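Reopening: PEGA domain-containing protein still failing for me.
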Amino acid sequence: MPKKLRKLFLFVLTVIFVVVGAYLFLTASGLVVNWKNWPHLSITKTGDIALKFSPAEAQIKINQKPYHVNRGLFPGDILISKLTPGDYQIEIVKEGYQSWQKTLKVKPAEVTSATHIRLFTSSPSWQSPLSEKIKDFWLTGEGLVYQTKKDELKFNQFYLKGNKVILSSSQSKLIITADTFDNYFLTNLEKPATAINFNELFTSLREQLKSADSSLIKKTYFHPFSPTKIIIATTNAFYALDVEKIKLEFLTRAAQFKTASISSSELFFINKKGDLNIFNLVLKTADIKALHLQNISFLKIAPDGTEIGFLTSEGEFLIFNRLNNELKSLTKEIKDFYFSPEGKRVFLISLNNKTFIFYLDNYETDNYKNSAGDILTIDFLQEQTFGQFNWLSDYPNNFLILADNKLIVSETDPRPPLNWQVLESGVKKYSFADGKIYLLKEEGKFLQGNEIFF
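Support: Ran it again with your exact input. Result attached.
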């Protein structure tokens, strides 16, 4: 080999060695040459993307190209490392499921995360366990109770007394029904052929207490931690009835109370003066907050019990914070509201059928942070007729809503795009329990979802 050629060859090898060595050194140091601003090159630290999704077998696409990873012990937890800072189009896909898409911004020396990704089946499988069409249904701890087209109440092969349901729960074997004359009937669904006249039982037990209260039953509630007890509200007082011991307990007076709600351990109600009454069902103690509220339509309690939401008949939404004893008016023209599972957010439906999420407290997850007072408008849910709403407690960044008779599931991650999906159309009513959805279609057909969320 000529001497000049050997020198050239050695020079080329040296250059390659220096360039490759420099590249390996930069890579090992978490640095990269940023070509995105060509011709203005720069050396910057790389960033990572952390993903957690379900189903765990779903595949990843980055900027529309498949990304292959070695799945370890936790296949749904993925760390994509050493990425050049910038925007990345992330897509999680699985056959038979609607894909999840999000634009994630990678920053130098930071991990951008999306750890609440939930794929839902694109074509939910529905079963029709009833041969007849129905008017309404209720889930109980013992199974399905439904109202026939003839206004009869059926449970398995049994007909229950009454033609409407007053109180039921998917966690309870007890149900209270009523007839057209407002006679209440209590049935233990373990023995559905036997019903007790609830009005007569309550009146008889109340007389044994020698109570001065003679007003009629106004509302009933399940006791929050005693499954054999039912809380009864009359116009003037609250009682607890133990249906197994057939024993009535006086709880507290409530002269002409306006509205009430029960948390995991407390009873809340507004009296005729507009003051908030709080009765502790464990300690049997009472407290009164002189709020002087007027025209309250209803109240709801945040899951931790520290905040109480009120809605007036004019649509004003107020929050009372028990920790600082402060009452605030947050917004007006509201039709309904729903506290999130952690109590830091509230989903609002306005009188003109717009929806948004109001942040009651600072809320941070997956690299996005909202401050108290921030508002997230749900753009695809505007000017529709809304029915039921549920936060999904197991998936707190997802919710179910009935809009224009469409059952919709949506996320709340504000980073675009917002992922949402119509699960079924023509829906009159739904219930969600144990990962399954139960539907009543507008034409009266009852459907049961086959574990839609898994």
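The CA atoms of residues 429 and 440 lie 5 Å apart. If you still see a failure, please send the error message rather than a screenshot.
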